[in-house]
Write a structure and sequence with these properties.
This protein has 433 residues and is of the alpha+beta class. It folds into three domains: 91 residues, Double Stranded RNA Binding Domain (2-Layer Sandwich); 112 residues; 208 residues, Orthogonal Bundle (hpI Integrase, Chain A), CATH 1.10.443.10. The protein is 51% helix and 10% strand. Strand 2 and strand 3 form a beta hairpin. It starts with a helix and ends with a helix.
Length: 433
């Protein structure tokens, strides 16, 4: 006997002794739970096997709506298709949000960049997305809000020609190098989106940087000891804040990354044993391994460096001014609880470099150049310093050594740091004399 709305309402949300099923017609039926929840079911045979498909619950799907689905399901069976797979794809398509390029990039910033990357990298990603995808730059306005005008469409409808036009626009607004930067970021975003089935359009992943722009230039500038000494003296003459001056000096002495020195905290410095321990960066897993017994836990060795005498002297100098809590190189004013910004340090280095060019025609130097100076200078003195300088620069060793050689070489690092400072100090004394 066919079901009716009055019969369905009689069973709905009523308690029953046990679940039961009632047939309607055309292989349609309902299953009623003990608590009175009603689910629509469709019985069918596919490849000679009996099966059933859940269509949804009553009253969200009414009697007439459930019956209206039957002809479509029968058609699937006649065509040799499994109604379950057809219905599943249909539901997935309906529930799937229509994703735009803007949506995908903003979601990636929230779910990937904010979790896996350091704050400075997050800021770079956010700035790139804001300018080139949202078309809302913080500073200089764009000539044309191209993405809003031409890519305001579902992401899966973006064609390869659309991408080519997009990168031509980036080049016209900025440069081929910037097009390469935006391309690398979008490649990461789209790879993530495809992996999580947020989008299916992956045609941009077939491109290479050279198809849309240029890869960033690899730095070649390697300051000589004379140029580093001239920079040191220019820093001494500057009226900049002490934390800015000392931060740049430590980058020269240690050959460390800009971000690593800026994020140095007093808690990372063991001034008794004279060791600087660099925490595992955000986005890199602190690998641990547990043994069979409770408490048997081992973790990866952090990056460690000795603190040479000149660095200790500079740290004591800044401690007298700002104390020994939080960041060693604090930001200015309202940012005193944060580290000095990369913009402030780079701007200071650029200013010092500009003065050197005006006075002595010494070409531009950026903080990262001193990393090349450290390794080049020491290896020119003796090739034995090659492995040691790799450790000093925080690089992984090559080949099987990266798996088996976990030595910090603290004594050798200290000897190398002291050697570099002795050479630099000699250049400074020559210039002063």
């Amino acid at each position: 006997m066919s079901l009716t709305d009055s019969k369905l309402k009689k069973f709905l949300n009523k308690s029953h002794d046990k679940p039961f099923e009632l047939a309607d017609r055309d292989s349609l039926s309902i299953r009623v739970s003990q608590k009175g929840k009603i689910a629509w079911q469709y019985r069918f045979r596919h490849n000679g096997k009996a099966d059933r498909l859940s269509l949804g619950n009553y009253p969200a799907i009414s009697l007439s709506q459930a019956r209206a689905l039957v002809p479509e399901l029968r058609q699937c069976i006649q065509e040799g298709k499994n109604p379950k797979s057809v219905m599943g794809k249909s539901r997935q398509a309906k529930s799937k949000k229509i994703m735009t390029l803007e949506d995908l990039c903003l979601m990636w910033l929230e779910k990937v960049s904010a979790i896996e990357h350091k704050e400075n990298t997050q800021a770079t990603h956010a700035t790139t997305v804001r300018k080139w995808i949202l078309n809302e730059p913080i500073k200089k306005p764009l000539k044309e809000k191209w993405v809003k005008k031409n890519l305001n469409m579902p992401f899966d409808e973006i064609t390869s020609q659309n991408w080519m036009d997009f990168f031509e626009w980036v080049k016209s607004e900025k440069s081929a190098n910037m097009a390469g930067v935006v391309f690398k970021l979008l490649k990461s975003v789209i790879t993530w989106g495809v992996k999580w089935e947020l989008v299916s359009n992956s045609n941009l992943l077939l491109f290479k940087v050279k198809d849309v722009g240029k890869a960033p230039n690899v730095g070649e500038r390697t300051p000589s000891l004379y140029e580093a000494a001239m920079m040191w003296l220019e820093i001494d003459k500057s009226k900049a804040l002490p934390q800015t001056k000392i931060c740049l000096k430590l980058i020269i002495l240690l050959g460390a990354r800009n971000s690593t020195v800026r994020n140095m905290k007093w808690e990372d410095l063991d001034l008794v044993n004279m060791i600087w321990t660099i925490p595992v960066p955000k986005g890199q897993k602190q690998a641990t391994r547990r043994g069979a017994l409770e408490g048997d836990v081992s973790s990866q060795r952090p990056e460690r460096h000795p603190i040479p005498s000149k660095v200790k002297e500079l740290l004591e100098e800044i401690a007298l001014i700002y104390g020994k809590t939080g960041y060693v190189f604090k930001g200015d004013g309202d940012n005193s609880n944060k580290e000095i910004t990369t913009h402030a340090l780079n701007r200071f280095c650029t200013r010092m470099s500009s003065k050197l060019f005006m006075k002595h025609q010494i070409s531009k130097i950026v903080p990262h150049d001193f990393r090349r100076m450290l390794q080049t200078t020491l290896c020119e003195i003796d090739s034995k310093w090659l492995v040691i300088t790799e450790r000093m620069l925080g690089h992984k060793l090559k080949g099987t050594m990266k798996h088996y050689n976990k030595a910090d070489y603290l004594d050798e690092q200290l000897e190398a740091y002291e050697l570099l400072w002795s050479k630099l100090k000699l250049e400074i004394e020559k210039i002063n004399s």
